[in-house]
Amino acid sequence: MPDAPCLALANVSRDFGGLRAVGNVSLTIAPGERHVLIGPNGAGKTTLFHLISGDLKTSEGKISLFGEDVTSLPPHRRAARGMARTFQITNLFPNLTVLENVLLACEALEPRKFSMLRPLSSHQDLNERAAKLLHDFGLWELRGEHAKNISYGDQRKVEVALSLAGKPKLLLLDEPMAGLSTGESESMQRLLHQLDPSITVLLIEHDMDMAFAFAQRITVLYQGRLLTSGPKDEVRANPAVQEIYLGVHAG
What are phi and psi of 53, to 5 degrees? Predict the structure, then answer.
């Protein structure tokens, strides 16, 4: 389906007991789009990410990826169809080197079996792909360091590199700037702006300057529901957004 949106949500909801954490969210994201999801703390942004990635099941609604209904698919099957994501907290193997972390990510979605007697590092194509990612993210000099020993900012870079290892068509980034220093945040912004334009990016971000600088379109959640969604200039000018979100943020 060449004309299908990259991602489509139709009345997606999630209940936790009597609490509706996400309610009737409908959203369409085009291939190659840079889309940012914003909203106050507790708005349901990360819960919605969990629903899109399959880490949580929907209570109601439908999720489609490139025209295919993936609502009932587990995370690994969504990943095999071109979806990748990062988390608010780094999700690395701390006792493996940076290179080993990236090699494992490169191997994870390969449709082939590996011999337990053959080291992963012996696969030339995987090594070349891992090396390119490390060079692209300025991490090559850290390739031999254990992940637990590098700075938090570099750990976040490694995590984004891991998410790209499987050559995704849709990348979900959950607050990639969280916990970064000003310099680290600026470095991450440069990396995100340099991503392949064919990759669709859906990003959760609290930093409004970064969100509006990166986004083509913005969706605002409030109390688990979609407040508004559209081109960033329209969203910025929306009085409800200024009062409910931007005003809260500025205060």
Answer: -80, -15
